[in-house]
What we know:
Layout: E1 6-10, H1 16-27, E2 30-36, H2 40-49, E3 55-59, H3 65-76, E4 84-87, H4 102-130, E5 133-138, H5 153-171, E6 176-183, H6 190-193, H7 210-222, E7 227-230, H8 233-242, H9 247-258
Parallel strand pairs: 1-2, 1-4, 2-3, 4-5, 5-6, 6-7
Helix pairs in contact: 1-7, 3-4, 4-5
NADP nicotinamide-adenine-dinucleotide phosphate (NAP) is lined by residues 12-18, 35-38, 40-41, 61-63, 88-91, 111, 138, 140, 183, 185-186, 188-190, 193.
Amino acid sequence: MNANNKFVLITGASSGLGFELAKLFAKDGYDVAMSGSSDRIFESVKLIEQLGVEAYPYKADASTFDGVEGYWNFVEGKNRKIDAAVLNVGISLGGAFLENKLEDELRLIDINISGTVHMAKRVAHHMAKNKSGDILLVSSLSATLPTPYETVYGPSKAFGFMFAEALREELKTKNINVTAMLPGATNTEFHHNAGMDNTFFGDEKNKNDKTIVATQGYEALKNKLDHVICGDEKTKQEAKENRTTPEAVKAARHAQKAKPE
Ligand SMILES: NC(=O)c1ccc[n+]([C@@H]2O[C@H](COP(=O)([O-])OP(=O)(O)OC[C@H]3O[C@@H](n4cnc5c(N)ncnc54)[C@H](OP(=O)(O)O)[C@@H]3O)[C@@H](O)[C@H]2O)c1
């Protein structure tokens, strides 16, 4: 171990935005703790180690209390100062509310809301003791609108956005920075995993580049911004318009994009 290296904890880092963020931290000389629910996490860690840092994999289901607590105990057990934490893990669920299973919707809430609060609690206490730290919370552009046909997802991300802003205000007296990252649709496996291949979001050309999105989030954290919209100019413009567009109008627009064909 290089004792001078900083240390970052990232949730949901075996692929997608979590993995891209792991690369950015590693290139800046951070050792990285990475979690995922599948065996892919072990391969992803090897790729991060090739960047010359240490990387630690942890496989667990972030929808369970024990999965989140187990990852925290694993990271805390390294007996290192945690300089940064990326609360990234999150899922969506496409389809009609009347057709989706309640247990799948509650699982989404367990991962996106309960698990995020759980890990934030552990990380905030650790960083408060050290009187320093950076927390990047991955919310979504979906936090700024109702999301029919991903009915529970958007509200879970609105929770994350406002949670991050509130935490930021409370933790600034402890020298802890909190930044919320709000990506527009991005070309990861996210929509496929949500069963949304047969929607507007199933088409790669309608999505932002994950490397650009992750870089914008990373830079916002380094610049200690309260939040950042991530994606191209169209995405940023949409976020701006969402501040004044009536919720019913935004809901109708999103329904067109997310309704299965
Ligand atoms: N992609 C987008 O369009 C988009 C837009 C706005 C916001 N976001 C947000 O960005 C974050 C990352 O999404 P992404 O696009 O990178 O998604 P992704 O490609 O589906 O990746 C999700 C990551 O989370 C892990 N994961 C999924 N379920 C898990 C569970 N139950 N327990 C532990 N790990 C789990 C996956 O690893 P395993 O496969 O190993 O489980 C993977 O590493 C999410 O919070 C999402 O809401 C995404």
